[in-house]
Amino acid sequence: MGVEADQELNPRTKPAVIGAAPQGAADAESAARAVRDMFTAIAPRYDLLNHLLSFNVDRLWWRKTARSFSDILARPEARVLDLCCGTGDMTFALRREGSETPTILGTDFSHAMLQRASAKSAGTSLRWVEADALHLPFPDAHFELVTSAFGFRNLADYDAGLREILRVLRPEGECGILDFGEPGGVVGKLYRIYFRHVLPKVGTLISGVKGPYAYLPASVERFPDPSEMLRRMHRTGFREVSWTPYTFGIAGLYRGKK
Ligand SMILES: C[S@@+](CC[C@H](N)C(=O)[O-])C[C@H]1O[C@@H](n2cnc3c(N)ncnc32)[C@H](O)[C@@H]1O
């Protein structure tokens, strides 16, 4: 059961935020730089840690997200953009779900992450473009589908990110944002212990980099909750907005149509 588009959205339960703010970042520019440096630093161990720390459930979430857009992905003329693609696992899930025909592009602003995506995609038709999600090098109304998995939360300005997605989408085009949530109840309590205390320690140990794995739970806590996020999507101009929780709401898919 998800939160539906046009239903009355709950009042905000978290203070409004502009975007991600890693520790020490004074403005949007320094926040974006800190995020890029963080992902560049953990790029060599990113895939290993992703699968390990999520107990491989991440694969299921990418697949489910790709499946939700199977109708678009089946269209031979479809143009698809996967934003903040990192090492490309969401992009690969889109490729697997779609026929061989649609153009699928992955973009990220970390060169090191894209290098790994590129190495993993040898022999496929996937293409990778180094770009900032807030300033995409694509014309207006270009894509049938724009996705982002676990990347949107890291943008320095969420509303600007939504506006940029809307800009590059064709009329009737769809957007799918997969990101972490904060489950409630007993699952939520257990999950928070794991996410705040275990994950940062294991992440730091294996990546050898201090910071990114402490930033992760902090960024999820800071991220707008589903009703606030849907309100922002609606306000930006998306219609039929919805949120579908995955795995007790540990993650969830935001959808909207242009
Ligand atoms: C947590 S990773 C997610 C990668 C991949 N989508 C996945 O599901 O594994 C977040 C990615 O977002 C990228 N990112 C964050 N802010 C960005 C921005 N403003 N423009 C482009 N990429 C950005 C980072 O470089 C990083 O590779």
Summarize the structure.
The protein is of the alpha/beta class and 258 residues long. The chain has helices at residues 28-42, 46-53, 57-68, 70-73, 89-97, 111-120, 158-168, 185-207, 212-222, 226-236, and strands at 79-83, 103-108, 127-130, 143-149, 169-180, 239-246, 251-257. Helix 8 (185-207) packs antiparallel against helix 9.
Largest sheet, spatial ordering of strands = 3-2-1-4-5-7-6
Rg value: 17 Å
CATH level-3 fold name:
Rossmann fold
Mean pLDDT: 89
Order of helices and strands: HHHHEHEHEEHEHHHEE
Q: For this structure, what is the CATH class?
A: Alpha Beta
CATH superfamily: Vaccinia Virus protein VP39
Distance between the termini: 23 Å
The total domain count is 1
Q: Give a list of the ligands.
A: S-adenosylmethionine
Give a written overview of the molecule.
It is built from ten helices and seven strands. Strand 6 and strand 7 form a beta hairpin. About 3% of the residues have low confidence. It has a seven-stranded mixed sheet, sandwiched between helices. It starts with 27 loop residues before the first helix and ends with a strand. It has one domain: 3-Layer(aba) Sandwich (Rossmann fold), CATH 3.40.50. It is an alpha/beta fold and 258 residues long. S-adenosylmethionine binds next to helix 1 and helix 5. S-adenosylmethionine (SAM) binds next to helix 1 and helix 5.
